[in-house]
């Protein structure tokens, strides 16, 4: 019996949401099945953990890709390379000097991607698995499970009010500034969401919600990355140089 997906659900946003929910259910039902990323690759158990991580991530990712019209046999080798790059990026963060510097795996993923794109170019056989928006959308659903109710209660009414005021005021100011600079409304909305909420993830979610132009989204993502990545590493050093406490520096 062939499983048919309703036409209304056969788009990347719904597929990513459904896959994210299925992953959450899978983890709840089989919590010991999903291994953590190993801190060293010198042991046999580490490679076993990586194999399990690959199989789980591939099954869910390939299922969504197939629902979107991609052939699994083309998706497999491309996804294997993407997964290998993620292993390299994550492993680099465990090097003592890099760990001390606070460089995250995302930083190395971007660097590796830039090197590939600007040297040999992106091979055609990798394209089926190069779906950054697709993976981020699934990640957004998973990220929602980390927002625990007791943590919200710790913030209290004033903490929630502060979050609402900051997000709303920054969003509207950014949108107002974008219009003053003659940026069109569609791009201005994506840029405002990125600046006020959570960067690239918010921009991608907003683009899906308003059915925006992916070319404009790529431009917004590029702006966020160019500005945010240097800020992540320069601003903590600058705050430390000024002698600010963590609380003041974070604010």
Summarize the structure.
By secondary structure, the chain is an all-alpha fold. The chain has helices at 12-29, 44-67, 72-92, 96-101, 105-118, 132-144, 149-180, 185-198, 200-210, 214-242, 246-250.
Secondary-structure-based class equals mainly alpha
Distance between the termini: 56 Å
What's the average pLDDT? 81
Low-confidence stretches: none
Order of helices and strands: HHHHHHHHHHH
The beta-strand count equals 0
**Number of separate helices:** 11
As a percent range, the share of strand residues is under 5%
Helicity, as a percent range: over 70%
Shape: globular
What would you report as the Rg, rounded to the nearest angstrom?
A: 20 Å
* Biggest sheet features: none
What does this protein look like?
- The chain is 75% helix and 0% strand.
- It is globular and about 50 Å long.
- The chain has 251 residues and is mostly helical.
- Helix 1 runs antiparallel to helix 2 (44-67), helix 7 packs antiparallel against helix 8 (185-198) and helix 8 (185-198) packs antiparallel against helix 9.
Defining key terms:
251 residues, mainly alpha
Write the layout of secondary structure elements.
Layout: H1 12-29, H2 44-67, H3 72-92, H4 96-101, H5 105-118, H6 132-144, H7 149-180, H8 185-198, H9 200-210, H10 214-242, H11 246-250
Helix pairs in contact: 1-2, 1-6, 2-3, 3-5, 7-8, 8-9, 8-10, 9-10
């Amino acid at each position: 019996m062939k499983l048919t997906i309703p036409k209304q659900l056969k788009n990347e946003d719904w597929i990513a949401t459904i896959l994210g929910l299925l992953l959450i259910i899978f983890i709840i039902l089989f919590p010991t099945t999903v291994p953590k990323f190993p801190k060293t690759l010198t042991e046999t158990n580490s490679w076993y953990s990586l194999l399990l991580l690959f199989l789980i991530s591939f099954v869910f990712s390939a299922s969504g890709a197939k629902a979107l019209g991609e052939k699994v046999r083309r998706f497999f080798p491309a996804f294997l390379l993407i997964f290998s790059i993620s292993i390299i990026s994550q492993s680099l963060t465990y090097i003592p000097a890099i760990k001390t510097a606070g460089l995250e795996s995302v930083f190395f993923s971007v660097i590796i991607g830039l090197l590939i794109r600007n040297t040999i170019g992106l091979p055609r056989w990798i394209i089926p698995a190069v779906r950054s928006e697709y993976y981020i959308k699934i990640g957004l659903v998973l990220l929602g499970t980390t927002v625990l109710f007791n943590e919200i209660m710790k913030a209290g009414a004033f903490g929630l009010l502060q979050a609402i005021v900051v997000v709303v005021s920054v969003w509207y100011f950014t949108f107002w500034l974008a219009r003053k600079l003659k940026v069109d409304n569609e791009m201005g909305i994506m840029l405002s969401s990125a600046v006020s909420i959570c960067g690239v993830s918010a921009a991608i979610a907003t683009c899906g919600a308003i059915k925006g132009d992916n070319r404009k989204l790529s431009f917004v993502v590029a702006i966020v990355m160019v500005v945010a990545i240097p800020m992540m590493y320069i601003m903590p050093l600058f705050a430390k140089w000024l002698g600010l406490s963590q609380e003041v520096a974070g604010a």
